[in-house]
Design a protein that fits this description.
By secondary structure, the chain is an alpha+beta fold. It folds into four domains: about 110 residues, no CATH class; about 160 residues, 2-Layer Sandwich (Beta-Lactamase); about 70 residues; about 170 residues, Histidine kinase-like ATPase, C-terminal domain (Heat Shock Protein 90), CATH 3.30.565.10. The protein is about 55% helix and about 20% strand. The longest helix is centred in the first third of the chain and has 35 residues. The termini are far apart. The C terminus is likely disordered. Keywords: ATP-binding, Cell membrane, Kinase, Membrane, Nucleotide-binding, Phosphoprotein, Transferase, Transmembrane, Transmembrane helix, Two-component regulatory system. It is a multi-pass membrane protein.
């Protein structure tokens, strides 16, 4: 019995040493252990105590279970000392040694969900990012891949990237890429002076250090430094990193504090540096900056050139079809009507391309003013009534609001309502399309319900992406570009509202968006917003 106790202690210590050697065989041990393993971080210490307590309990349980199992099934009286004592201990040692690491990783993932503290493999993060960047075909795709990698690894709530245009040595904000935070969060405009300040500094800016510098030096002459601190605080970011390609500032990436509240570690800074270098290298190699700008300019120029002739064609056809202008043979009128409908479709497509170009270049303008949303929806209903009748569809409009006034751009909102109702008609075969206005706190909600094809859950995440169209047998013959919802979402986001969808395949969809209510005394005011 005494020998059994000694054997148990020897085997258990051997197992513990083996496991610890496997665990600490890590490149991080070359650095300062206090920094590498965050020894003074109470949250980390608590997590490790919790994890290793469970692991110790599991190890003891496994050991006892294996030894008892051998004792019961092999038999204590009929076996030699070798089989009775040594083999169970060897089996327990192997089981604990090989099971330790997978269980530890699983426990760490579980605790990370509650504490927001997680460790990441630097090599794995950069490898996955490399795969994602390799398939990027635009500047936006490359930047979003980079931000997603940092958000996931460092446990951030969001990330913002201001893409800049460098014209005549002046850095101007072109457009914004945001992940994890709505664009309306960016209440403060990104001024050209701030861009110039970041361009001159050419190094990361920590908001806390910036604010401390301002407090300690009250006579500070750098006004831009104060503005940078105010701007960073207004959008809740902790640090800003200027991004250069061939000495040219292409943008500024901003990140908030970690969800855990921990400071950025040396490993975090190393990750950011490597990820930035990796992304810049891909952008430079693929010439994504130049291609992105050329593509946007080409679409804009081509759209403008197409818009004039299509408008002329549409105008002349409209005049010919006007009964008071000239008498047309019924057969000819039928063909002219089709030509007129096609010219209208072409005109809408050109306008959509212009809107996409404006969105991507950060030049989509929203001119907000007071207007009656109920009257606007009625006008859209009248416009699409003929389309609905052609498919034997009814359009029902209900306004459950006392005051239908909202604060937005009426032309842009007309475009959104028209897109949603047109889609409802397009994807419905029979039944009724219901448009409803309702109040929702400080907003007015517009809903468009149809009982058409609907969509599957896997399509929802891509619904508001550019050029996305659902691919089902029912939609193959339905015409469309996949731009309407993309444009609508950007318009609603810029208007301070939100757009949502509820759908079920085969049952139909409900698209809804909110707009802020008009405030008393705002009828004479106008507000111009640009991305």
């Amino acid at each position: 019995m005494l020998w059994n106790n000694y054997l148990f202690i020897i085997v258990f210590l051997f197992t513990a040493i083996l496991v610890l050697l496997v665990y600490f065989k890590n490149p991080r041990k070359k650095s300062n252990p206090i920094i590498a393993h965050q020894l003074f971080n109470i949250r980390i210490i608590t997590k490790k105590i919790f994890i290793y307590s469970i692991l110790l309990a599991l190890a003891l349980t496994v050991y006892v279970a294996i030894v008892l199992g051998f004792t019961i099934f092999i038999g204590a009286e009929n076996r030699s000392f070798y089989l009775r004592d040594f083999i169970p201990n060897i089996v327990a040692t192997i089981a604990i040694a090989f099971g330790f690491e997978p269980i530890r990783r699983k426990l760490e993932k579980i605790t990370d969900k509650f504490s927001f503290v997680g460790q990441y493999d630097l090599g794995e993060v950069t490898r996955q990012l490399g795969v994602s960047l390799a398939s990027s075909t635009s500047l936006s795709e490359a930047l979003r891949s980079m931000m997603e990698a940092l958000i996931k690894a460092m446990r951030l709530e969001f990330s913002i990237f201001f893409i800049l245009n460098n014209e005549q040595n002046e850095a101007k904000n072109n457009r914004i890429e945001v992940i994890g935070a709505p664009k309306e969060k960016l209440v403060e405009p990104f001024s050209e002076k701030l861009a110039t300040y970041f361009k001159a500094l050419q190094e990361p800016i920590i908001r806390e250090e910036l604010e401390r510098d301002i407090r300690e030096n009250k006579k500070i002459k750098e006004v831009a430094k104060g503005k940078a601190a105010i701007f960073m605080r207004s959008i809740s970011v902790a640090m800003a990193l200027p991004v250069f390609i061939k000495g040219k500032l292409i943008g500024i990436m901003m990140m908030p504090e970690k969800k855990s509240g921990d400071v950025f570690s040396a490993q975090d800074w190393r990750l950011v540096s490597i990820v930035l270098l990796q992304t810049v290298s891909i952008i430079e190699r693929k010439h994504l900056c130049e291609e992105d700008q050329m593509k946007s300019e080409f679409v804009s120029i081509a759209s403008h050139e197409l818009l004039t002739p299509t408008a002329v064609i549409e105008g002349y056809l409209s005049m010919i079809l006007d009964e008071n202008f000239v008498k047309v043979d019924p057969v000819v009128q039928k063909y002219l009507t089709r030509a007129y409908a096609s010219s209208q479709r072409l005109s809408r497509l050109v306008k959509d391309l212009l809107n996409v170009s404006s969105i991507e270049s950060g030049k989509l303008t929203i001119i907000s003013k007071r207007f009656n949303l109920k009257e606007l929806v009625k006008s859209v209903q009248e416009e699409v009534q003929l389309k609905a009748l052609e498919k034997n569809l009814k359009i029902k409009f209900v306004a459950n609001v006392k005051d239908p006034n909202v604060w937005a751009d009426p032309e842009r909102i007309h475009q959104v309502v028209y897109n949603l109702v047109s889609n409802a008609i397009k994807y419905s075969k029979t039944g009724t399309i219901k448009i409803e206005l309702s109040e929702e706190n400080e907003f007015i909600k517009t809903s468009v319900r149809d009982f058409g094809i609907g969509m599957s859950k896997k399509e929802l995440p891509h619904l508001f992406e550019k050029f996305f169209r659902a691919q089902t047998p029912e939609t193959t013959d339905i015409q469309g570009t996949g731009l309407g919802l993309y444009i609508s979402k950007n318009i609603i986001d810029l208007s301070g509202g939100k757009i949502n969808v509820k759908t079920k395949y085969g049952k139909g969809s409900v698209f809804s968006f909110t707009l802020p209510k008009d405030k008393p005394g705002d009828d004479t005011k106008m507000m111009q917003t640009k991305i």
